[in-house]
């Protein structure tokens, strides 16, 4: 058998040589691809607690979201085009620079390029088919540029030379800028570079295809992130920036509630300050007209005995004003899709819990809309839950308000029992003592607002 095929040995040798040469050419011209991995812990709070302690429990109690579904939503957000495009624009990944080689693939330089090329993301997104730049950077700092791009569906070429950089090059499709990379040592010989400026939208699609975000197991909330890229450091920078932007967006959503609360409190403080200013002015005028400096009459002693009811009355009045302002905010159609101010000093824990649940659902809806449309079943479900929860908030606010109004009437009735005890006091003393009572009803609210501002900051 061996001697039968021995006569064809030249063909066997030629086949082996062809395979070796083909493999060499492939490795010479094919850029290596690196796989960059990372693990991210997605915090979801205490999923085991009831809905009264955990706002996310409201979603689970309504049957619309489970722990797994919420984790899947966070994974989809990490892979969303909106988030990835932010990273692409921030790191200028739509612009790549490589060293031109006569044989083999061009060597990507990334951060080691001696010349940085830049075009704004908005201009780059308007490029028809991207732009290609041939650069020759000399040891003495001179830069020769040849730009190839499409304009009005025709290929255009433009050349320009700069004696030094930084420099800018305006073209019909946008402005290219060139700066020196100070982190790279001076050139020892002239260098030929090639730069590609692509549409950030197209580059985003490429990263979406090469990015994988999967849970490490069914029992954890750790997401394994994997990216394939021809430059290892670029892949590392992309994943780090992706996680940073993800955390930043999450913090922005949490701060939205605090911002709304601070705006709500600032508005109320402004109203109360105006009222206090008027009261202080009227009180000063009254004392000046009456010539009063100090009061030690029985009327003061009588009012000191009623201080307990006055304190309860002013605290209840403070809560009453807060809930009335909150009701006006909730019933305002302009705030239909806005979070409801929290941490504004409400003493009713049930109302505060319901508001937190409503805000959590609203924030979850906004996050879902980043990666899906209004017609998505998950969005439709949460819209139904938000509508139901908003009605629940309105009902609870009205119920709390009625309770405070009843309590206010009872306290006022009790306070009036002590007013007879000062009926025999001189009219000036009685009027003077009643004026601070109305002033005190406003002070606790102002102090409550300032305490709430500290909590939201």
From TrEMBL:
Enzyme Commission code(s) on record: 2.7.10.2
Domain Polysaccharide chain length determinant N-terminal stretches: 10-91
Domain of life of the organism encoding this protein: Bacteria
Topology in the lipid bilayer: Multi-pass membrane protein
Uppermost EC category: transferase
GO (cellular component) term, any one: plasma membrane
Alphabetically ordered keywords of this record: Cell membrane, Kinase, Membrane, Transferase, Transmembrane, Transmembrane helix
Entry's Gene Ontology molecular function annotations: non-membrane spanning protein tyrosine kinase activity
Localization per record: Cell membrane
Cross-referenced InterPro entries: Bact_polysacc_biosynth/exp, LPS_length_determ_N
Entry's transmembrane regions: 6-27
Protein name (record): Tyrosine-protein kinase Wzc
Organism: Phocaeicola vulgatus
Taxon lineage: Bacteria, Pseudomonadati, Bacteroidota, Bacteroidia, Bacteroidales
């Amino acid at each position: 058998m061996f001697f039968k095929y021995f006569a064809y040995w030249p063909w066997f040798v030629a086949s082996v040589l062809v395979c070796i040469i083909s493999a060499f050419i492939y490795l010479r011209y094919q850029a290596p691809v690196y796989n960059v991995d990372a693990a991210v812990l997605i915090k979801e709070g205490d999923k085991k607690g009831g809905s009264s302690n955990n706002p996310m429990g409201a979603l689970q109690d309504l049957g619309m979201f489970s722990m797994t579904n919420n984790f899947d939503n966070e994974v989809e957000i990490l892979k969303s085009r909106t988030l990835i495009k932010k990273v692409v624009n921030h790191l200028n990944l739509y612009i790549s620079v490589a060293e031109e080689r006569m044989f083999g693939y061009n060597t990507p330089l990334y951060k080691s390029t001696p010349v940085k090329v830049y075009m704004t993301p908005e201009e780059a997104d308007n490029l028809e088919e991207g732009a290609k730049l041939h650069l020759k950077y000399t040891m003495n700092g001179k830069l020769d540029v040849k730009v190839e791009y499409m304009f009005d569906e025709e290929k255009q070429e433009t050349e320009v030379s700069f004696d030094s950089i930084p420099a800018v090059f305006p073209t019909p499709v946008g402005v290219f800028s060139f700066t020196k990379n100070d982190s790279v040592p001076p050139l020892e010989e002239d260098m030929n570079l090639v730069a590609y400026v692509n549409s950030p939208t197209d580059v985003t699609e490429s990263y979406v295809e090469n990015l994988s975000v999967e849970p490490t197991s069914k029992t954890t909330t750790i997401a394994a992130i994997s990216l394939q890229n021809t430059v290892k450091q670029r892949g590392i920078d992309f994943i780090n920036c992706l996680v940073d932007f993800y955390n930043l967006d999450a913090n922005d959503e949490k701060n939205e509630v605090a911002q709304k609360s601070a705006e709500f409190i600032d508005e109320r403080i402004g109203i109360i300050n105006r009222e206090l200013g008027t009261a202080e002015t009227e009180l000063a005028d009254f004392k000046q007209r009456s010539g009063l400096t100090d009061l030690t009459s029985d009327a003061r002693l009588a009012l000191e005995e009623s201080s307990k009811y006055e304190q309860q009355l002013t605290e209840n009045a403070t809560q009453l004003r807060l809930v009335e302002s909150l009701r006006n905010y909730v019933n305002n159609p302009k705030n239909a899709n806005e979070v409801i101010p929290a941490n504004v000093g409400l003493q009713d824990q049930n109302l505060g819990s319901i508001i937190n649940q409503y805000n959590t659902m609203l924030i979850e809806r906004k996050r879902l809309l980043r990666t899906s449309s209004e017609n998505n079943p998950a969005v439709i479900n949460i819209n139904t839950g938000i509508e139901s929860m908003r009605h629940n908030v309105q009902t609870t606010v009205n119920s709390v308000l009625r309770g405070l109004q009843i309590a206010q009437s009872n306290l006022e009735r009790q306070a009036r029992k002590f007013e007879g005890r000062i009926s025999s006091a001189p009219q000036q003393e009685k009027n003077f003592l009643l004026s601070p009572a109305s002033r005190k009803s406003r002070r606790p609210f102002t102090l409550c607002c300032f305490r709430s501002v500290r909590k939201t900051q």
